[in-house]
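pasting for ref
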Amino acid sequence: MAQNKHHPSNKPARAKTPGIHPRNPHSGRYDLNALSKSYPSLTPFLKHNPRGELTIDFSSDQAVKALNAALLKQHYHIEFWDIPPGYLCPPIPGRADYIHHLADLLASANNGVIPNGKQIHGLDIVTGANLIYPLLATKSYGWKMTGSDIEAASLESAKAIITANRLEKSIRLTQQINKTYIFKGILKEQDHYHFTMCNPPFHASAKDAAAGTQRKLNNLRKSSTINPPKESKTQLNFGGQHNELWCDGGELQFIKRMIAESTNHKDQCLWFTTLVSKKENLPSIQRTLKKHKVSYFKEVKMAQGSKVSRFIAWTFQSQSDYPAWFS
């Protein structure tokens, strides 16, 4: 695949983590010394494990948030990043992989050339208080991004990040007023996007979400080589708010609604995409895509070592339509 050699994010990097995208800068172990020099607020959270290796306690919400802020500052020149207590704190390497695979998807419709710059416009559904996908997209490829969310508090947090980093010309926000819809009310008649992306709510109920968060914390404590912190209400909540974690019908019903709604915006978007956390949902999703007669769809697999994830992409455009999107 041809690459734009003049754009820093397109420089190939040796993938030290099996399966990670070769342009993803977050391969291998974190250089915590370098990160703490770039972002001194990380320093209090650094510890040595029994092997003498520098690490942090990944079951600590404050430690993980400081690590994210450090990664964003060192690799993406984001000077300010913060989220309110209790909101989803995303693992940046996996989020970056989604962006880089999206770049490859766009290249597949652009004669193998990854398109850079504000002429490429993406829509992040359920952008959240962390604004992570728009930040990574605009800093990695210079794309223009729109983030949508149903929760005003999430958008206020996202707006603060945009303002502090002077990204108003690159990222805009819009609120979904009616939670019944995903695209309606967000996609205006004049809007055109090269892609949409989404990390859909995973769970089907608040009870399932709470149980999932508890399992995650238990696993982190078991794997931690640092003194595990005592359970607290904050730690039980730092995995995300209700609209980030669950919705009626869970991930599958959310994605099926998204596919059905996308048929009303066939000519307004080149690629519709969404993460699919549960592999067992893929057959039903594929049947839904065929039912709605999309022109083409594909599963894009991603991996971070032993952790495997994927997103599904579909389009209503024919190959003969692709050049017009990049002219």
